[in-house]
Design goal:
In chain A, helix 3 crosses helix 4. Chain A folds into four domains: 94 residues; 87 residues, Kinase associated domain 1, KA1 (TATA-Binding Protein, 2-Layer Sandwich), CATH 3.30.310.80; 114 residues, no CATH class; 129 residues, no CATH class. Chain A is of the alpha+beta class. Helices cover 31% and strands 34% of the residues of chain A. Chain B is mainly alpha-helical. Chain B has eight helices and two strands, in the order αββααααααα. Chain B has a two-stranded antiparallel sheet with strand order 1-2. In chain B, helix 6 runs parallel beside helix 8. Chain B is flat. Chain B starts with a helix and ends in an 11-residue tail after the last helix. In chain B, 47% of the residues are buried. The chains are: A alpha+beta, B mainly alpha. The interface between A and B is large, with 51 and 48 residues. Bound molecules: protoporphyrin IX containing FE. Protoporphyrin IX containing FE (HEM) sits at the interface of chains A and B. Protoporphyrin IX containing FE sits at the interface of chains A and B.
Chain lengths: 488, 304
Amino acid sequence: MSQETEIPELGFLGLARYAWRQLTSMRTALILLMLMGVAAIPGSLIPQRITNPMAVRDFITQNPALSLWYDRLSLFDVYGSPWFSAIYILLFISLIGCVLPRSLEHFKAMRAQPPATPKNLARLEEYQKFDTDSQVLDRASTWFKQHRFRVLNEGQSLSAEKGYLRETGNLLFHLSLILILIGVSFGSLFGMKGDAIVNVGERFINVPTSYDTLSFGKLTGEKSLTPFQIHVDKFVAQYDPATNAPKDYTAWVTVTNDGVTRKETIKVNEPLTFGNTRVYLQANGYSPVVTVRDSKGDVAFQGPVPFLPQDGNLRSIGAIKVPDAIPQVGFVGSFVPTNSRSAGQGAISIFPELLDPKLLFSVWKGNLGLDSGVPQSVYRLDTTKLTKVGLGSVKPGETFTYPEGSITLETVVPWINLQVVEDPGKKYALVGGIVAVLGLLSSLYGRRRRIWIRVTSDGVEVAGLAKNGAPGLEAEIKNFLAALKGEK
Amino acid sequence: MQTTWAYTSNYFVYSAMALFTISFIAHAFETAFAVRAPEVADATQGNLLVKTLDYKRTEKTARIATAMMILGFLLLLAGVICRGISAKHVPWGNMYEFSITGALAFTGAYLAALRKYDLRWLGVFVSFSVLITLGTAITLLYRNSAPLVPALKSTWLVIHVTSAIISGGVFLLANVVAASYLYLERVESRGPRPAWLQRVPSLEVLDQLSYRLVAFVFPLWTFAVIAGAIWAESAWGRYWGWDPKETWAFITWVAYAAYLHARVTVGWRGRRAAWLCIFAGSTFLFNYVYVNVWGTGKHTYSGL
Ligand code: HEM
């Protein structure tokens, strides 16, 4: 006979109910909240893929063994990790289970009458007793009305209460937290985010192939992209001549959306808006416009090639790959907008504007491996299987010749990085945030208090009670007494 | 390139430091000279040798101390404003500016609270810590006035940082009060307070005061975080990205929420509450120092 451990009283439903009650207790919610605070810490100390992918890569090359463990524990993706998500989903459920029933209760309590006058007023705060006076209850009633107390008339006594706004605010605040969490999850499930580098003079069309990187929320996909086009007409970056620090970036664009074409500008703090989608100006750099010819003089490649900035003065690196040349050639390049030389580093840029631009490069020939199926960075050239055939530099208008052909720097155009973000949840989060602040204000500054007055055979008794020891009751009762005694 | 405005700002900051020094000395003198030896000093009965404080003798010094503090505050305010004019932006583009503005907020929080509570016993500490902050700022953190990088040009930044700095000033004040609580509690557990501590309010008052301060600014801090999110949305394309600065702002927020809950719903008082308050305040300081100096992320600009 097999013996099973039994839980006779609880059963499955009972167990579930028990678990639910535990999860939705305030203690659990607070522990979860603290846990979320603690769980957020490692993400601020260890580089994160979402904020700093480069630092993560460096960290992995320097600490390969440790990184393996970090990766197993999602420590490079703390905020998207299963354990972080588990905490906030549990907090979310706990909050709902904890706050919603309370709101209902509060709603009922708000419409209920103030509680009856306690028997023994003498034990309460601010207790006072003085001689009877036949009209005192009328005057008290008037005062309560003037000061918008809610009053329960019990014949020989009045019970008055004020300050429900405190609880209302408190519940609104806690409810707003739920709304914020809804907004955040809605945004991450149904949103999208992408980056595209666009040269000045080119057009960006909002389709998946236009993007350099593109990611969608779990419950949405390519079909959700808002149809629009942006032609970049002009881009101006202004720098402070004294410190080289950027002062202003402005892009002038022509936008086509819903069959309407209009002119717009995009600045760093002023994105373009298409419904839930916004387009941000996130970065900028330079694209040398080059013409590469083969040994017969035929054009093998012509056009702008975006280079990646490496420092504040926009010294940039990049690669020009020409698979159509015979043999294939590639250039490993560095571009400086204002050329200068430093003893240690070679060519450097001393100002971020195009004052004295120069393109420096080494030329390589051989199979570039572009059709090998292994994805390659467009900014780097793997030279391990290539042969170096030249080393040179050109300024705009100049041509450099090597045995297999030549390269001409025609001109230089700026590129801008457009970041396209769709977040359908942010309006809920915003409303949640506003309600949170308003709720907090009325919850932390509101004072809930009761005042009682009772006429007995040997005098009038007055007493009060302030919830959470809120200050100001003493002064209020003093005013009340003054009014009762007709001193006002 | 330094403008006249930047130099003017520096003069104001230096003069403010001079006044804070005088204020510090006056506050220290006040306490020192108010201590009065007992009139009947009977060496045979050691327990009678309890000194008392007599503030009648030092009332003038005390008033000078506070007056100097107010003047120092006004000069520092002028310094901060000139700095803002010189850089053509609100003066918190780098850590030097953030420090002088923070010192201003801390003094402001103290002076504002002084109107309502008898806090003069804190004056020695406030003037001293402001002096240290300004000294560090002008010697170690000083940077020439420079224009803001484009991402920082936003009204929401002004709103966000103003409310964050004010919240920080009050949080720090609450921390100082909580620390005084812990110190006094230890002193009292060993015997009666020494004379120079007699004017510090009772433990109960300190306990309540630090809670009041936190409860008073918590909505403002919440607002500061939200304003920051609104600004980030327009500058970086997301309202929340778990950047280290944002993460620690969140941690501070959670810590203070826990503190408020511990007091209001669980009923913590006294030592435990004071420690929790100090812990929460430390997360704020950590955010300011660690993330600005060693951190990486979008909030780290322009060489401090
Ligand atoms: C899920 C369960 C929670 C419950 C049942 C709960 C309940 C309460 C209660 C009863 C109060 C005191 C109201 C009063 O007596 O004045 C309160 C205050 C407060 N709660 Fe919560 N809370 C919960 C979660 C949270 C969370 C997640 C936060 C997030 C930050 C939070 C932040 C606050 C704040 C700031 C106060 C104000 C404290 C004060 O009045 O001084 N609560 N909460």
